[in-house]
Write a structure and sequence with these properties.
The chain is of the alpha+beta class. It is built from five helices and 19 strands. The N terminus is likely disordered.
Length: 418
């Protein structure tokens, strides 16, 4: 009986074992197939990702290559544009300064920290130097006040005023106001809202230009306004104002920003000027290189008939020989004369004042003359063989180098008919 029981248990155990082994085998098989399937799916996914990655990489490389090419094209276009517009960007300039300098003040005769000797005011001001530009600058450092040039000036009917200004960043909207007016009796300061008998007020603002013509006994005001190319704070701005009888034109950033045919009352005779800051509205400015010249000369007659033209309308930065864009009007006039008279040959001669040493001034004057020739040849198509150049440095002054106005007279470019 015990043996039979043992055999039965043994058979049962073997059956259970076989069943368990079969179950385990089936389970193992299923797990293995599952893992294989996972592996295949994973491999497939990775392969798909790799393929997509390669496609994306190829697209990225293509885009990158295209971007590089586009950038190179853009850089090339930009460089070409910058080169081609460096001088011709001033094509909107139609003014040519006269050959006679009526007034000039760069405040070089004044000590830094002092109030300029040739001016007076009902507000504080002093001479400063600036980190962004050479020379002395008149700091109109009051929020309100009038700054007068002390002496009377015999303004012609047609004249041009030029000056550099650096508006302050803080404060109000007005960089400075410039008032030109006429008076019968000399008066150091006329602080009336509208000084003198008649005049023109020019408000130079951060966002616009505004003008107002006035006359005593007249209730109407002749106004003008423009928002083109306003002055920029903490930058050197070269402002040009051209008065031609009743007409007023303003230029800034190589463009005409305002042109008023009848902005000035008929019969106005200017002999004084001042800068004005208005209470609560002005930010104030630094002023330098203030120049007044007569109207443009008959350049054709001067060059072709008299054989010599003296020009103060060709501009360079201090101690540099690169022709500035403001020179466009003058050089264009010279080019037109040469184009219409193809047999005429000229010599361009540069001159400097006596500041600096003789050798440096001589070299600078020669380089400036060569730069003017280069503009005539490259920008206006004048044959190089028709133009000679020379420089005299400070060696042939036409005035004593003892004042700002006389130094301005000596800094010139001459065109001589050969």
């Amino acid at each position: 009986m015990k043996k039979l029981l043992f055999v039965f248990v043994l058979i049962l155990a073997i059956g259970v074992t076989q069943t368990t082994q079969a179950q385990l085998w089936d389970k193992l098989k299923k797990e293995t197939e599952k893992e294989i399937n996972k592996g295949v799916e994973k491999a497939t996914d990775e392969a798909e990702k790799e393929i997509k990655g390669e496609e994306k990489s190829t697209e990225s490389k293509q885009d990158s290559t295209k971007e590089v090419k586009d950038n190179k094209v853009n850089e090339s276009v930009t460089k070409e544009t910058e080169t081609s517009t460096q001088f011709s960007s001033s094509s909107k300039y139609d003014f040519v300064p006269g050959e006679k300098v009526i007034f000039y003040d760069d405040f070089s005769q004044d000590a830094v920290g002092d109030f300029p000797a040739l001016w007076t005011a009902n507000a504080p001001g002093e001479i400063n130097t600036l980190s962004i530009a050479p020379g002395n600058w008149f700091n109109l450092n009051s929020g309100e006040g009038n700054y007068f040039y002390l002496n009377s000036i015999d303004f012609p009917k047609n004249f041009i005023i030029e000056f550099d200004m650096v508006p302050k960043k803080t404060g109000g909207r007005i960089a400075a106001g410039l008032i030109l007016y006429g008076e019968d009796k000399p008066k150091e300061m006329d602080n009336n809202v509208n000084p003198g008998n008649s005049g023109i007020q020019i408000s130079i603002e951060k966002e616009s230009w505004n003008t107002l013509g006035y006359k005593k006994g007249e209730t109407d005001r002749i106004t003008g306004s423009s928002r083109v190319n306003p002055v920029v704070a903490e930058k050197v701005n070269h402002v040009i104002i051209w008065v031609q009888n009743r007409r007023l034109r303003i230029y800034h950033k190589e463009a005409k920003v305002l042109d008023m045919p009848t902005n000035i009352y008929d019969g106005t005779k200017f002999n004084r000027f001042c800068f004005r800051l208005s209470r609560g509205a002005s930010c104030g400015s630094f002023i330098s290189n203030f120049r007044i010249t007569d109207a443009s000369p008959d350049m054709r007659s001067k060059l072709l008939t008299e054989g010599k033209l003296i020009s103060y309308g060709i501009y360079f930065d201090v101690n540099k020989d690169v022709v500035k864009p403001e020179s466009y009007g003058t050089i264009k006039e010279i080019a037109t004369i040469l184009q219409e008279n193809p047999t005429v040959k000229i010599k361009i001669v540069g001159h400097t004042d006596s500041d600096g040493d003789d050798k440096s001034n001589l070299d600078l004057s020669r380089r400036r003359a060569a730069s003017v020739k280069n503009v005539l040849v490259k920008d206006f198509g004048i044959e190089a063989a028709r133009i000679e150049t020379d420089g005299k440095g400070e060696g042939e002054p036409i005035a004593k180098n003892d004042s700002g106005i006389n130094k301005a007279l000596n800094r010139r470019v001459e065109f001589i008919k050969l």
